[in-house]
Design goal:
The protein is mainly α. The protein folds into two domains: 105 residues, no CATH class; 64 residues, no CATH class. The chain has ten helices and two strands, in the order H-E-E-H-H-H-H-H-H-H-H-H.
Length: 234
């Protein structure tokens, strides 16, 4: 499910309001406001760590001997090993994913310790990003279900970002909140492989029959994963 939530700021108070009661894994970029979700286990995003090193490479130059390129090669091996593990059927998995990835992560951290970058350079920023979030990046080892990146969330927000370039901004807070609700429904329908137009049509028809305060059982039947949805929604 994709849930969009609008607020005028990105402060830690907003994070606490949304996630204050949630306990579990929380995978994000390195934005410090997420620390307000104190009951969660923060998990870092290796795509963000990789991106920092990608920004160190001059465009059109393929210097495999540079420190940034070597760091990217190590991160690439981490991703390849993880992909290889996911492609093995669960019944045939003889090792835990952490046993496969931990030596590669250890090698990565050891390599970063050898880099002496100019203060304030892109390479310095890339190294410090990883080191500052080392604990969170290592938390991908805690559970096989944790992905290396938060790319799912990044992809989910992309349609909104593309649309925003067309309309520039929302005129009112209520309008932004309404947009967030619409995107939550539409993107959740996509995640469940539904026909978005058919699903929206179904919701508009059925919700009008339920009045202003439908109960949870009635709403459960309308969820994008409900087995009772008509064929034209699928």
């Amino acid at each position: 499910m994709s849930l969009y939530y609008y607020h005028a700021t990105r402060s830690s108070k907003v994070v606490e309001k949304i996630l204050g009661g949630y306990s579990g894994y929380l995978q994000t970029d390195g934005y410090s406001a997420y620390n307000a979700a104190e009951k969660t286990v923060r998990v870092g995003c290796w795509a963000h760590a990789r991106r920092k090193f990608t920004e160190c490479l001059p465009k059109g130059v393929n210097n495999k001997n540079s420190k940034a390129a070597q760091a990217l090669e190590l991160i690439g091996r981490i991703f390849a090993a993880d992909e290889g593990f996911k492609n093995v059927p669960e019944n045939d998995q003889t090792e835990n994913r952490s046993e496969i990835l931990r030596p590669l992560l250890d090698e990565y951290w050891k390599f970063l310790g050898t880099i002496q970058a100019a203060n304030g350079s892109n390479l310095d920023k890339a190294v410090n990003y990883s080191l500052n979030h080392k604990k969170h990046l290592n938390n991908v080892l805690l559970d096989n279900c944790i992905e290396l990146t938060n790319n799912r969330a990044e992809r989910a927000i992309k349609p909104f970002v593309i649309g925003r370039k067309n309309w520039l901004f929302s005129d009112t807070d209520k309008g932004a909140d309404a947009s967030a609700k619409c995107y939550s429904i539409i993107e959740s329908a996509k995640l469940n492989n539904l026909n978005v137009f058919g699903y929206l049509t179904y919701l508009l028809i059925e919700l009008s029959k339920l009045g202003y305060e439908p109960d949870s059982d009635q709403l459960d039947n309308l969820m994008p994963w409900s087995e009772s949805l008509p064929d034209y929604c699928k």
